[in-house]
Design goal:
The chain is 39% helix and 19% strand. The protein is α/β, with parallel strands linked by helices. The two termini are 22 Å apart.
Length: 695
């Protein structure tokens, strides 16, 4: 037994440095694109495939294909003038001529000369009736060199400047056999047959080296299926903790309801009433609530969450409020503290910036039940923090927090009630894959008396107009946000680029305005002071990064000026815009941008033309696809590498059926025959999922 349980080294874990065709430089380039092991390498999937025809006479090259041909160089020319410098050569065989163009090809002047016989390979385009190749691969050959005989169907990989698709293809080709030997199929044969899926090993071979398009398609279908079913299984494992009677049953009566309402300085909207009613029903049920509270920015989600928190505290349980960023956590903390001033409720803030020493003390008080509401970032999820009696978890902007942490929380507190708030409406297919086990409440009406936010898009040349608006509003007693363009330059830190922008503005367009920087790298105290000063009107305008995107709530701010707006995503812009129009004054959002791509222009136009968060989310999804839509890379949501969820509804449905069936027979996936499935989920979701589900 001991022998069997000794881990056999996983061949797929082999580091890139040890792979064939990979030296130190290549290894570094591979690590840059996230490939650190053999396993990563074979999960680096092609983005497309191309037919490559066998070597042909020039006259038979077909337009739009990758072609191979040879001929004698009859003329060369180097053009250094305007535009990109280029080297041109003409190849001729018995009947025809082929033009070659090499951009930046100065180095070819000493290498390619008339009389040489070249074999070239590249994309063929007909231009004025003549075939042409731009930047083809080339080699000098002797006249009698044999033809390249096989036509090929080749993978095209997402390439970088240093790593071409061909290089990636060659590296994968050299290591594929070894990798395939390390692949174990977790999927029971019955499912493979029923769903007409190819084996995992075949799928990995054919996604990289398919014989034709059908094989590539079948391979992709299998791998997509794996992604979808593992997500469904992971969600299903979470549900295991969701038995009736497994959650605290809370009580609420009219008196408590009245006391809670008295805390709000406003009447609740109809939509808030309805959501609260649904939540209260959940809290009373004894079954763990899993509810997604969806509502556009400014619709008043926080009040709803606070109501639920206070019910929890009145029931002598603790509440935790998790926010994706520190600023947002601090903001929530301040809002709650203000609303609960003069009450018995003890609130504390826990972020990664909370000093270790005071955090230790805090952890003790949380464990002793002396803290009633803990507000924080992911720091709250640390193992060292245990709650005495956690009854409710509220997560703001869940999609930024990720499924992993969610699973961890569920496990840690057994079955607390769980409320997720999001301002990003979640399309149906994504909802089915990520939030399959959630009930939905929607705030479809905002607080009354809100001013619409007018949105303008100005070009860089009109920036004076933009700053003029900022000055006008400030002169009228209002305040402004100025979002600095995102820096692409790695060397320029967030703090430096914000500081630089503050300097530029205060010595120029906004010299008479009280400006202050706000960005993620500032120490918490400074951030808090800055926010407090802004809220108190001591600062006219915040010059900030997108960290102000979520949650910040200062009703007197009426201008949102976003510089370099073309560099931001649509949903992000919408969130930023949601920071103004929160009070009684008319507000405006100014997008300052000279977009270089048509996609960016489309985003800006969309923002100008609609205010509906739903429409925006929809458009965003269409423009960018689901992975980008959720901004998953930064935010920890497991990314589907291949699945395009909005197009794969049918396969998603099948995967869900199969997952339900597997879990039906073995709810915790603990049976020995399911060990392979467990390993697969752990691979996809990492250790924390393992902790939650199998811990
Ligand atoms: P969200 O989190 O959905 O973006 P918030 O909960 O931050 O929205 O609410 C936005 C603003 O509206 C806050 O200033 C809040 O105090 C205020 N607010 C919330 N509900 C109401 C209401 N029913 N009536 C008036 N103002 C409200
Ligand atoms: Mg909010």
């Amino acid at each position: 037994m001991t022998l069997a349980s000794t881990a056999v080294a996983d061949p797929l874990a082999k580091p890139v440095e040890e792979l064939r065709e990979v030296g130190p430089a290549r290894a570094a380039q591979l690590r840059k694109i996230g490939v650190t092991s053999l396993g990563d390498l074979i999960n680096y999937f092609p983005r497309d495939y191309q037919h490559e025809s066998e070597e042909r006479p020039i006259g038979l090259l077909s337009d739009g294909q990758i072609g191979i041909a040879r001929g004698e160089v009859t003329a060369v020319n180097y053009i250094a003038g305007r535009g990109r410098p280029r080297f041109e050569a003409t190849l001729a065989d018995e009947q025809n001529r082929l033009c070659l163009v090499f951009f930046h090809g100065a180095y070819l002047r000493t290498k390619v000369h008339p009389g040489l016989i070249l074999r070239v390979r590249g994309p063929v385009r007909y231009f004025r009736g003549l075939p042409q190749m731009v930047n083809p691969k080339w080699e000098a050959v002797v006249a009698e060199a044999p033809r390249v005989a096989d036509a090929k169907f080749r993978a095209v990989y997402p390439a970088t400047e240093k790593l071409s698709s061909e290089t990636i293809e060659r590296i994968i080709g050299a290591n594929l056999t070894e990798a395939l030997a390390g692949i174990r199929d977790w999927c029971p044969g019955g499912i493979l047959g029923k769903r007409k899926l190819v084996s995992l090993r075949q799928a990995y071979r054919d996604i990289h080296q398919p014989g034709d398009r059908n094989q590539a398609r079948a391979a992709r279908r299998r791998l997509v299926y794996d992604e979808l079913i593992s997500m469904q299984l992971a969600l299903g494992l979470n549900r295991r903790f969701m038995q009736p009677g497994s959650a605290p049953m809370m009580r609420i009566d009219r008196n408590l309801d009245r006391r809670i309402r008295a805390r709000f300085p406003f009447e609740l909207t109809g939509a808030q009433e309805k959501a609260i009613w649904q939540i209260v029903a959940d809290l009373q049920s004894g079954r763990p609530m899993k509810r997604l509270l969806q509502g556009d920015v400014g619709s008043g989600k926080t009040a709803v969450a606070l109501y639920a928190m206070l019910v929890t505290v009145a029931n002598k349980m603790q509440g935790a409020l998790l926010a994706p960023t520190e600023v947002l956590a601090e903001q929530h903390y301040l809002v709650l503290s203000r609303l609960l001033r003069d009450s018995q409720v003890k609130i504390e803030l826990v972020t990664s910036r909370t000093k270790q020493k005071s955090r230790d003390g805090l952890a003790e008080r949380i464990a002793a039940g002396e803290v009633h509401i803990a507000v924080g970032t992911q720091a709250l999820l640390q193992k060292s923090i245990e709650f005495a009696n956690l009854g409710l978890i509220v997560v703001d902007e869940q999609h930024r927090l990720g499924v992993l942490q969610r699973a961890y929380l569920t496990c840690k507190a057994r079955s607390p009630h769980y409320l997720v708030m999001t301002a990003t409406p979640i399309p149906r297919t994504l909802a089915l894959s990520y939030f399959a086990d959630f009930d939905l409440s929607t705030l479809d009406e905002g607080p009354p008396g809100r001013q619409a936010v007018g949105t303008r898009w100005l070009r860089g040349s009109q920036s004076a107009q933009a700053y003029g608006t900022v000055r006008q509003e400030i002169a009228a007693g209002r305040q402004a946000y100025i979002v600095v363009p995102r820096v692409e330059d790695d060397d320029l830190s967030e703090s430096k680029s914000v500081a630089k922008h503050v300097r530029t503005l205060s010595s120029g367009a906004l010299s008479d305005v009280k400006l202050a920087p706000l960005h993620g790298q500032m120490p918490t105290e400074i951030k808090q002071q800055t926010m407090a000063a802004f809220r108190d009107g001591k600062i006219d305008a915040l010059v900030a990064t997108t960290m102000i995107e979520v949650g910040i709530d200062v009703p007197n701010a009426t201008v949102m000026l976003i510089e370099g707006a073309d560099r931001f995503g649509l949903s992000q812009l919408h969130q930023l815009r949601g920071r103004v129009g929160r009070g009684e004054h008319p507000s405006q959002c100014i997008l300052l941008a000279d977009p270089v791509t048509s996609g960016a222009a489309a985003r800006l136009e969309a923002l100008v033309s609609t205010r509906s968060g739903f429409e925006i989310a929809d458009m965003d999804l269409r423009l960018r696809g689901p992975g980008e839509f959720f901004g998953t890379r930064q935010h920890g949501l497991p990314e589907f590498k291949l699945a395009e969820v909005e197009n794969e509804f049918e396969l998603l449905r099948l995967a869900k059926q199969d997952a339900d069936q597997l879990l039906g027979g073995d709810p915790g996936l603990i049976k020995r025959e399911n060990a392979g499935i467990r390993a697969m989920i752990r691979r996809q979701f990492g250790v924390s999922m393992g902790l939650a589900a199998f811990g």
